[in-house]
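Anyone have tokens for Ammonium transporter? Sequence:
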Amino acid sequence: MSLSSVPAFNFSQLPSNLIPGDANPPWMSKGDNAWQLVAATLVGLQSVPGLIILYGGAVKKKWAVNSAFMVLYAFACVLLCWVCWGYRMSFGDKLIPIWGKVDVALEQDYLFQQAFLGLFPNATMVFFQFVFAAITLILIAGALLGRMNFYAWMLFVPLWLTFSYTFGAYTIWSTNGWLSLKGIIDYSGGYVIHLSSGVAGFTAAYWVGPRSTKDRERFPPNNILLMLAGAGLLWMGWTGFNGGDPYAASIDASLAVLNTHVAAATSLLTWLILDVIFFGKPSVIGAVQGMITGLVAITPAAGVVQGWAAIVIGLCSGSIPWFTMMVVHKKSELLQKVDDTMAVFHTHAVAGSLGGILTGLFANPRLCYLFYGYYNKYYGLFYGIHDGQIHKGLRQIGLQLLGVLFVVVVNVVMTSFICLLVQLIVPLRMSEEDMEIGDEAAHGEEAYAIWGQGDRLEKSAGFSAYNDDTAGAARSAGYNTSRSQVEMV
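Reply: yep, here.
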């Protein structure tokens, strides 16, 4: 039969809500587009407000505002950089095999075109990928809480996004990237997001230096319930984190969501049991750490492994990072020297690399086909041995290890370069005096103004420009307010 004899499809026979139009091109799936926007919003909620209140509740009271504000600033800054140059450097035309060309993602003609993958427009993909880029910077912040100069953080965020994140995203996720073309598996960011943020956070913490001695010795959470609320948003938001990466409302998305939560629950319970066995008490902070390591470890594997493998990954992620944090850390001079406030190295670098390696063992060829669309290109080692394709399995595990090496090298080198560059402009650390004060020195604001604790006139701290009553009272009382101290005129 010739093409000319095939009758043209009559779109008018479709229900009115499915008829293509100027705002609904024939290539777009309304269902996929809707799910992708929802998934992106869920990931965004992990950061704002999720990590805002997790960090704000997990630190000392005097650092609650500063920690939360580092998250809020990073989220806003990354978005502007992302649409102006970051997205196209990560997913646009190839400049070199590990980096894309600089270009904007702001013009109508570009944003309304079909995305490089998925049945939805570039505008949706730009937003979806933005929330991933943003949370990566926010996770790095977790290693730096309680001492980084906020002005240095303002410079660090756009520089790191430009000269580190875009390398990893293009190399591993772009359809033209070096490791992507070779066949590395990183379903939703075990390498690009978690291993990157863990290594970069640890490296930046080395250059910034430790918290004050007093803070390192005792750093109790100011609000554990608030921290748990943030952790809950982080966990539930992971539905969009892993469920959105097939770029379709597909059966693979459903599998990824279920595997994500199974692994997280298994990891949380494993960590909890180890705490009870070795320390005698169930720790809620430990449970949150176990939850996070489970979510991180399943991320590179979520839609390409079976449910039993998700449980195995959860068992590993609840025990191996626990061991590195509770045992190895205490015996390692380097790990003790570097002050990683939220243990990002263990929860993200260790768990992310662990997840990537386990993906190389458990990746199911059938599920990889559903996700990638290629037969027999992606092969977990255990399936390779079972199917007589051991060379494919060995190749896959080799690629997973190569990915770990690539991400570690790029992030150590580029993060060190960026920290040294920023240090030429502003100090990386707050002054010792300001670290003693905390939020009021950095921002002139405090998290909780409880009766008897809200009278700032008796404290050697600055004032917020937005606290008119306090500032006005200070002026009428004869005080000269500055950033770090209050002096009587």
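Residues 454-463, 468-489 have pLDDT under 50 and may be disordered.
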